[in-house]
Amino acid sequence: MKAFAKGIVSLCALVMLSFSLHATPIDTYEFKNDDNKERGLQLANELRCPQCQNQNLIDSNSPVARDLRIQVYTMVDEGKSDEEIVKFMTDRYGDFVRYRPAFDNRTLVLWLGPVAFAVLGIGIGLIFVRKQRQTSKAAAPQMSDADRERLAKMLKEERD
After folding, report:
1. CA dihedral in degrees (15, 21, 25, 28; nearest 10)?
2. CATH fold of 23-102, please?
């Protein structure tokens, strides 16, 4: 039994250790200056890896992401603007490569969808609350004149 417990503890330690390890890609690209380096890293953080699909170019270890990082860094050093670089990437890989897609006719639902669902949810909630209030008012027992007289008489007796 002790050997089993030690095995479980070792396995848990190994699993926890594996979660703490994080491999980061090492690029040996030499920028012309620090401003270009900052811009290049910022752009690579804002662009999604087309292969990994849920990591940016910096966090991804795939060969495609590495090639695209180098491409972004090269374009930054060539003096291209951020818009030109993003346009190049979106022309090549589609709007999916952007974490924050542009606001246009194709992405209208993407940008306005959450707002529409929130408004719809609030509207349904208000209708539900209003209906509940009306139902509770209608269901409240009505007192007859005889009941009111009895209540008044009971209250008067209690005061005296």
Report:
1. -150
2. Helicase, Ruva Protein; domain 3 (1.10.8)
2-61 pLDDT per residue, tens: 676 676 777 666 666 565 554 444 567 788 888 998 999 999 988 988 888 788 888 888
> What confidence tens digit (pLDDT) does each residue in 97-122 have?
887 777 878 778 878 889 999 999 99
The one-letter code for the residue type at 30 is E
Residues 6 or more apart from 96 whose CB is under 8 A from it?
48, 50, 53
pTM listed for this prediction: 0.55
